[in-house]
Design brief:
Radius of gyration of chain B: 25 Å
Oligomer: heterotrimer
Largest interface: A-B, 71 and 63 residues
Number of helices of chain C: 3
Distance between the termini of chain C: 55 Å
Shape of chain B: globular
Number of helices of chain B: 24
Order of helices and strands of chain C: HHH
CATH architecture of the domain at 27-90 in chain C: Orthogonal Bundle
Shape of chain C: elongated
Chains: A mainly alpha, B mainly alpha, C mainly alpha
Strand content of chain C: under 5%
CATH topology of the domain at 27-90 in chain C: Helix Hairpins
Number of strands of chain B: 6
Mean pLDDT of chain C: 92
Distance between the termini of chain B: 63 Å
Low-confidence stretches of chain C: none
Structural class of chain C: mainly alpha
Helix content of chain B: over 70%
Strand order of the largest sheet of chain B: 1-2
């Protein structure tokens, strides 16, 4: 029985055991390089595991639910984790924070995300969320001597804990309203009974927790401050995998309560309003940002808005579009932050104008960055275009054409600030001779660029993966 | 493997090869050898597809053929394919693009010689052709949109190619600004295009042309109005029509071959192509059609009058391009889709020739673009001069040149459709066109030399003049593909395109009427040319020691009459009325939207106080609103 | 007087609100953090109350996990506060605003 559960939940079992192994190795050997290698191996094993079909079902007494859905999500998390740590190494060394713990904490954060995506019970959902969040607080503040990093960690921690309070209260009220904490049982209860206002208050409170994590307007204000202050590789993880995790958990919850939300026009209206606000505010605020990390922070808010459009669509097409977008978005954003991290190591360059003339000195790096920017803009044939197309098409299919139009309009605005970076890289003279001397292109970035490109021209395989994930999401 | 794929993807291969070359620095005396290699390779990557298309064309039997490479992606119930449709329209356009494209590539080998970014230039150029072929050959709107965005991007990169140069445009100071302006204006159009795609998708859940056209009955009239209107707005951006045309004159900041290829012969005509492609939809909405015709003729007229006042050789040509595109839209608007494509074709020949010729002149005069500082070049650049003259005559619509037949075709069809006002304005515009064309030619090539004599201009190398001769010859005889019915009963291009383009059946003109129209067109063109010639060839222009040029008129009574009656009113109209609209209202609107967005962003900054508790307060307020709205109402 | 579920819930809601207001008005980071803890414990109270009145063990199980998580959060939170204090000599949250705009 127990063994069967452990095997069924193999990714999580493995990740947990591997975490323990990492801690033991780090504590005894104290060699960051070794820990890095072992963590990479752990991620690689996880990624490989996700590529093969596996048994699906509930484990540990309906606590965890393993399915193609969790498999797709775990694939995104493990891939992001792996890419982030390979991009971190030289950055950490340069900033004198090359601790083995860093890698372990990234791994633990990923474990938390995996729990969120596999959660079948509110307890697991909460624990997963907290494991991820606490790990991320540490990652934000790992540069202990840096004032900005301190501040970022502090803000992230206080506001994160504050929002988890609401999230937990929401769980409690839903528990009180339905008498259940297992998600599918809540779903069954809601199909048979009508929802009380206690339930609606609980659901709204839970939503606040999710909306905070995905940084939807008006729960977004921490995002630019924290992204700017944190070490750039940590920011890469926060802005991508942690959002993806929040979205997968959000979909799980929304799917189970859909019998009530489907017919609640207030619910749909409130969510659409938040999606619109998020897209509009994110993009417009990004326009006037000079600091590249802050600009990407606001743009990541806007991207959360696009993904919310898929959630509002409320169909399998919408949810699978969100999954696909989460993958593409994670790749391109990690790539963009990776380039920033690379250049930051050499000089304190933060604003878009500091990238002037990058193409002249490092053409390949500039080309890679331009690809990420174009993909983030949503220009075909890159992955970002397919993702956006799927999201907006799902909205159109669900009769929410106006939402799609707002989305297209908002992303038209975004072209301005993404292209600004391209303009500086390609169409300006360097401010000084050889200012990018010593910047060495990390092969991982080329790999990410290639993946973003391939997801644009051969998206079918991954789209099917995401589609299957939804088909088998909750048919048990 | 279908040959279509080879032709579409060869330019992409060329792009990758040139990019690789651009990553390696050009060193020492190997430079020119490497330049030749890159140039010839890139040219071949366009010339081979042209050969393939020409072969396909020779054996073309009128049947559309669709070649699917693979399923690109699925969205909901439908799947989007990477597949190309070869029918008379797309084959014809592809031949123009690759044919003119290879000539311009060839020319660029000479033109870009010695430029730091030689390989990069060819990489962009090849990428452009790849995107353009996708735009033309795609069998669905999503793949078309890939090309649509791709050509926009390449145009953007190429306008800003010489990014360190100053450029004096409307409200802009550098080439980068010009590139940005082009991109932003195009984004406005692209947004409309995407919205149209969503509307189509919502109704029939498909986006390939065949489904759209076969299920066109599924759209009701409001639907069709909005779809066609939005597509047309998209086209106004790409094809530089009112109100989104001001980017095109500024796009002249790019290297001249780019102006010839992208901003005259190919990319800017993609709006016309798309409208013709979806012509069965367009004729279902008379309102949109009328709007297209009016916008087209208004653009043609306004741009032509502005062209009268310009002194930059490329700007004259740019406004002339906008104006000629206006004619094409006029043709679309009255339902003469075949005539529009006919004019696209001849325009590609003569305008590419004119641009390349102007490039040759600019090259010879060391980047001088002001026609007031030219003159007398006919003697020193005989080949450029001869070809430029032929192409100018074609642009002016001189009888029996290519431009004459296509422009007359458009005007005759307008007359046929009974829109006499449009026809009248079209005729006036034709006069102005002839006038500014002759002004441009005369000031550049005739009279005394007004350039600094130590410049020693000389004829361009054969690599550059050969394309000029070919394009010049085509400007002369290209009209043969669409001779009017009085000369040849069966108009070749109309019947060739009839399998893929809708046609509005109008009553045919009497032969006598047609002769009269041809006669009127000829007279108007010749009058315009003669008037302009008599004014500008008799002017002497002195270059004063300070370098300030002043224009002195030799006092002939007839000149003053012309001047007062014809030139002055139009110049007044252009400089006092239209140019301000040009830069204050339209640009002001575009810039205004931009700056108000940025301003709004600045206001949002103030909300970002940096104090965590303020953020917590906003979260709490958001929470109260959310709970209040969802749970308590 | 007989104590009903509602009484517990109102008490819990009251405590939660006190916590929220505390977070919004106090300046000291540590006090703010204690207010967050108050929020969590208010929720715990509601969990236990629900659990009791629903005769269902899950709510009480949840409380243990919440307590564990709160402890972990406290460890990390205090570490962050300490490193901040070392660098800035202040834990007043309104003085910590280098990052803004």
């Amino acid at each position: 029985m127990a063994l069967h559960d452990l095997l069924l939940a193999l990714p999580i079992t493995f990740a947990t055991l591997w975490t323990i192994l990492l801690i033991v190795v780090e504590a005894t050997a104290k060699r960051a390089q070794l820990t890095f290698s072992l963590t990479s191996v752990g991620f690689l094993i996880l990624i490989t595991m996700m590529l093969f079909p596996s048994e699906q079902g509930y484990a540990f007494g309906e606590m965890l639910r393993l399915s193609p859905y969790s498999q797709f999500a775990n694939f995104v998390f493990a891939l992001s984790g792996l890419l982030v740590i390979t991009l971190s190494q030289s950055y950490l060394a340069k900033e004198n924070i090359h601790f083995g713990e860093y890698y372990i904490i990234v791994f633990i954060a990923t474990l938390g995300m995996m729990l969120m995506a596999s959660a079948a019970h509110m307890v697991v959902l909460f624990i997963g969320l907290e494991i991820m969040s606490i790990a991320l607080y540490v990652l934000a503040g790992i540069m202990r001597k840096d004032l900005r990093a301190n501040e970022a960690a502090m803000k992230y921690f206080l506001l994160g804990a504050f929002s988890s309070g609401f999230f937990l209260y929401g769980i409690s009220l839903i528990y009180g309203a339905t008498g259940e904490m297992t998600l599918f049982k809540i779903g069954i209860y809601l199909q048979e009974n009508s929802a009380t206002s206690l339930f609606w208050i609980g659901l709204s409170l839970m939503m606040v927790g999710f909306l905070f994590k995905i940084s939807a307007v008006p729960f977004h204000q921490w995002t630019p401050d924290v992204y700017e202050g944190s070490p750039t590789p940590s920011t890469a993880l926060m802005s991508t995998a942690s959002k993806a995790a929040a979205f997968t958990a959000l979909i799980t919850v929304v799917l189970n309560v859909s019998s009530q939300t489907e017919n609640n026009s207030n619910w749909i209206f409130a969510l659409s309003t938040i999606a619109v606000l998020t897209m509009v505010v994110g993009n417009i605020a990004a326009l006037s940002q000079d600091n590249l990390k802050r600009m990407l922070a606001f743009s990541s808010i806007a991207h959360a808005g696009y993904m919310l459009v898929g959630i509002v669509a409320g169909s399998d097409a919408g949810y699978s579009a969100v999954l696909y977008y989460a993958l593409v978005y994670s790749l391109m954003n990690i790539g963009a932050f990776g380039v920033i991290a690379l250049i930051e190591q050499q000089r304190e360059l933060t604003s878009a104008s500091d990238y002037a003339g990058l193409f002249k000195e490092k053409p390949l790096l500039a080309g890679v960055m331009a690809l990420f920017m174009l993909s983030l803009t949503g220009i075909p044939p890159f992955g970002g275009f397919i993702g956006k197309y799927k999201l907006f098409a799902a909205a159109v299919e669900s009769g929410l054409s106006w939402l799609a139009v707002v989305g297209v309009l908002a992303s038209a605005v975004s072209a301005y600030y993404y292209l600004r970076v391209v303009v500086f890289m390609f169409m300006r003279e360097p401010q000084a001779e050889n200012q990018f001397e010593g910047v060495v292109l990390n092969p991982t970035l080329v790999l990410i660029a290639l993946l973003v490109f391939l997801l644009g021209i051969f998206p079918t395989g991954m789209l099917r993966f995401a589609g299957e994930a939804m088909k088998f999401a909750f048919n048990m | 493997m279908n040959v279509i794929f080879i032709s579409v993807f060869l330019p992409l291969v060329g792009f990758f090869l040139s990019s690789l070359f651009s990553l390696t620095k050009f060193i020492g005396h190997h430079e020119s050898g490497k330049e030749k290699l890159v140039g010839v390779l890139s040219t071949l990557m366009i010339a081979i597809p042209f050969g393939i298309f020409a072969t396909l064309f020779a054996s073309f039997n009128g049947e559309a053929q669709i070649a699917t490479l693979y399923d690109w992606f699925a969205a909901g119930a439908m799947s989007i394919k990477v597949s190309y449709q070869l029918d008379s329209l797309s084959l014809f356009m592809a031949m123009i693009v690759t044919g003119v494209g290879s000539l311009i590539h060839l020319y660029s080998i000479g033109y870009m010689h010695g430029d730091e970014g030689f390989a990069r230039f060819f990489a962009y150029l090849n990428l452009f052709i790849f995107a353009m072929l996708n735009l033309i050959l795609a069998d669905n709107m999503v793949l078309m949109f890939l090309g649509w965005e791709g050509v926009g991007l390449c145009s953007y990169l190429l306008i800003g190619f010489w990014y360190d140069r100053k450029f004096d445009g409307i409200g802009i100071a550098t080439t980068t600004d010009a590139a940005n302006k082009a991109f932003i204006m195009n984004r406005i159009g692209d947004f409309a295009m995407l919205a149209a795609m969503f509307l189509i998708f919502q109704k029939i859940s498909a986006l390939d042309y065949n489904s759209i056209l076969s299920q066109k009955e599924a759209f009701d009239s409001t639907h069709i109005f909005w779809i066609t209107l939005l597509i047309f707005i998209g086209c106004t951006g790409k094809s530089a029509q009112i109100p989104l045309y001001t980017w095109l004159p500024d796009a002249m900041a790019g290297p001249t071959p780019v102006s010839a290829l992208i901003h005259a012969a190919t990319m800017v005509t993609s709006g016309i192509y798309l409208t013709a492609r979806l012509s069965p939809l367009f004729i279902m909405s008379p309102d949109t059609m009328n709007l297209i015709a009016v916008v087209g003729i208004a653009t043609a007229f306004i741009a032509a009058t502005i062209g009268l006042t310009q002194n930059d050789i490329k700007k004259v040509l740019a406004y002339s391009t906008v104006s000629q595109l206006g004619y094409m839209f006029l043709a679309l608007g009255i339902g003469a889709f075949g005539s529009a494509i006919f004019h696209v074709t001849t325009h590609a020949f003569f305008k590419a020739c004119l641009f390349l010729g102007s490039g040759s002149v600019i090259h010879a005069l060391h980047e001088e673009q002001d026609i007031r500082k030219m003159g007398g070049l006919a003697k020193v650049m005989p080949q450029t001069h001869a070809t430029f003259l032929v192409a100018s005559l074609a642009l002016a619509g001189f009888p029996l040149t290519a431009g004459f037949f296509s422009k007359d075709d458009v005007l005759a069809k307008t007359f046929e459709s009974g829109n006499y006002l449009l026809w009248g304005v079209g005729l006036v515009t034709a006069f102005i066109t002839a006038f500014y064309t002759m002004r441009l030619y005369t000031l550049t090539f005739l009279g005394e030399a007004r350039y600094n004599t130590d410049k020693h201009p000389h004829e361009s190398p054969a690599l550059m003049t050969a394309p000029l001769w070919i394009l010049g010859a085509l400007s002369l005889v290209g009209g043969a593909i669409g001779l009017p019915a009085v000369i040849q009963e069966q108009n070749w291009i109309q019947s060739f395109l009839s399998s893929s383009v809708a046609s509005v059946q109008a009553h045919h003109l009497e032969h006598s009427n047609e002769w009269i129209l041809l006669g009127i067109s000829s007279i108007v063109a010749i009058l315009g040319l003669a008037a302009s010639f008599s004014i500008y060839s008799k002017k002497t222009v002195h270059v004063e020691p300070e370098g300030v040029t002043t224009v002195l008129y030799r006092k002939y009574y007839i000149d003053e009459l012309y001047d007062a009656a014809v030139v002055k009113p139009f110049q007044f109209l252009a400089s006092r009325l239209l140019a301000p609209i040009d830069n204050r209202i339209i640009d002001g609107l575009v810039n205004g939207i931009g700056s108000s967005m940025v301003g709004l962003g600045g206001a949002l900054k103030r909300w970002q106080t940096g104090v965590a508790q303020n953020y917590a307060l906003v979260i709490t307020i958001g929470l109260i609103l959310l709970v209040g709205y969802i749970a308590l109402t | 007087m007989h104590i009903e579920l509602n009484h517990y819930l109102w008490l819990s809601a009251f405590m939660f609100t006190v916590g929220v207001i505390g977070v919004l008005v106090r300046r000291n980071a540590i006090v703010i953090f204690m207010c967050v803890e108050l929020m969590l414990n208010a929720v715990n109270l509601s969990f236990v109350a629900f659990s009791h009145f629903l005769s269902d063990i899950q709510g009480q199980m949840m409380v243990f996990f919440v307590m564990t998580v709160a402890a972990a959060e406290a460890a990390v939170g205090l570490a962050i506060v300490i490193s901040l204090f070392r660098n800035r000599q202040t834990v007043n949250i309104d003085e910590i605003n280098l990052l803004k705009g």
